[in-house]
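hi! just following up on the protien thing from before. the input was this:
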Amino acid sequence: MRGMLAFRKAKKKLRMGTICSPNSGGTKTMEVCNADWMGSLPPRLSTLPLSNLAIPGSHDSFSYWVDEKSPVGPDQTLAIKRLARISFVKKLMKKWSVTQNLTFREQLEAGIRYFDLRVSSKPGDTDQEIYFIHGLFGIKVWDGLMEIDSFLTQHPKEVVFLDFNHFYAMDDVHHEYLIQRIQEAFGAKLFPAERVENVTLNTLWEKKCQVLIFYHSPFSTQYPFLWPGHRIPAPWANTTCVRKLILFLETTLGERAPRGAFHVSQAILTPRVKTIARGLVGGLKNTLVHRNLPVILNWVKTQKPGELGVNIITSDFVDLVDFATTVIELNDLLLQGDRALATC
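and the predicted 3d structure came back as:
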């Protein structure tokens, strides 16, 4: 009896948070780590479609680092590009371009499994290199893919969604190059597009696949391992008002198709020009996120996953609150029916 109790405690600790691996300085961080949460789910949940599970994701996932010394990205207007010639403007842009504090590896250890990716070629580059982009250029896409692949190799039961949803300054040659790099990075870990309802953790484990690539471009029809963008809709509220955001999230969940697609609830606020002007020096985190994230998290706590419930939920600065663990714990609600039967 004691052995079984100890096993249950250990399993719960593994699922809901353990001390993460040592950092580069050799000391252990004291942050909650959900590095193996998918592999530690109850067996019943590993038979459900991934579209029915609650999965934490990050918005502009790569933007933990942007390069102030690089040109302004092609995703910006001509007026912004002209302003950026003034030396301090890029420093201010950085405050609004960065939406995450954690690297890919750190996000994965925290439990994030969906990544929102925007990519671009860089003006003046003679090669075909592709970079992440959000106002300013981030790291090379290849470096990010290798960081993710390294984690997946060490955690063979974890699965990620990589959503390439915005492309800038990219012609056919750039797309071919990027797709080739994706294939080189993940190889046999790539799971080919098929019926969403057939995609369960058990199926992925059996095939030793861990990566679903969504590619919002006609190129998705040319490669079996690229999922078309319409299979993962991510409605965008485009508001600075947290009340309007929550109403939008509720409305779009109510409109969710019960089958045929995953669903992303973007629990994020988007600054307008006047928002940026008022909080110019404070940046996104201090102006919008800090004061509204607790309200957004409270909304998350009221949700339930399932065919018509939440699926993937994304947030800015996923480390500021216990975001990933809160989303992961929603999956316990899917077991309530089993528990009720067990007590009968």
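DSSP finds twelve helices and eleven strands in the chain.
The domain at 11-331 is CATH 3.20.20.190 (TIM Barrel).
cheers
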